[in-house]
Amino acid sequence: MKKYLLGLIALVTAITLNSFTVKTSKHPTVTKNFTYIAYPNDSHVNDPNYYTLTGNDGSDDLNCPDGNSHRCGVIAEDNGSGLPDLSQAYTIATRN
Q1: Do residues 71 and 94 lie in contact, with contact meaning Cβ atoms separated by under 8 Å?
Q2: At 50, is the secondary structure helix, strand, or coil?
Q3: H/E element holding 34?
Q4: Mind listing the pLDDT tens digit for each residue in 42-90?
Q5: Which residue from 15, 34, 60, 96 could staple onto 54, CB 3.0 to 4.6 Å apart?
Q6: Pair 64, 96: CB distance under 8 Å
Q7: What's the sign of the alpha-carbon dihedral 49, 52, 57, 63?
Q8: 4 DSSP assignment
Q9: What are phi and psi of 3, to 5 degrees?
């Protein structure tokens, strides 16, 4: 009887603890277009503070005029403050 009671208590405890477990899921966010504003200085390309959203909350295309191969912007996820999240994978747009 003692074995069954201990097993029942363990089962009830497991069900109770499992029902209060917070499940987190990382949903991919939408990528946006960010213009690099320190052109032609390429020393700040890894600093998100040197990027600004393109028009329409980052949905307008990047305007990369012809020229040399400096970075003109990135297509990246928003970090929640209107800046690109450069710790995640992103696409680089260059002036060709």
Answers
A1: yes
A2: helix
A3: strand 31-36
A4: 888 899 999 999 888 888 888 877 666 778 889 998 888 889 988 888 8
A5: 60
A6: yes
A7: negative
A8: H
A9: -65, -45
- Contact present, 81 and 49 (Cβ < 8 Å): no
Pure H helices in 1-96: 2-19, 55-58
How far from 86 is each of 4, 12, 13, 14, 25, CA to CA, in Å? Answer: 55, 45, 43, 40, 21
Give the number of other CB atoms < 10 A from CB of residue 51. Answer: 24
Give me the amino acid identity at 90.
Answer: Y
Question: What are the C-alpha distances in Å from 57 to residues 35, 51, 60, 67?
Answer: 12, 13, 8, 26
Tokens of residue 17, six digits: 């603890």
Neighbours of 33 (CB within 10 A): 23
Backbone angles phi, psi at 33, to 5 degrees: -95, 130
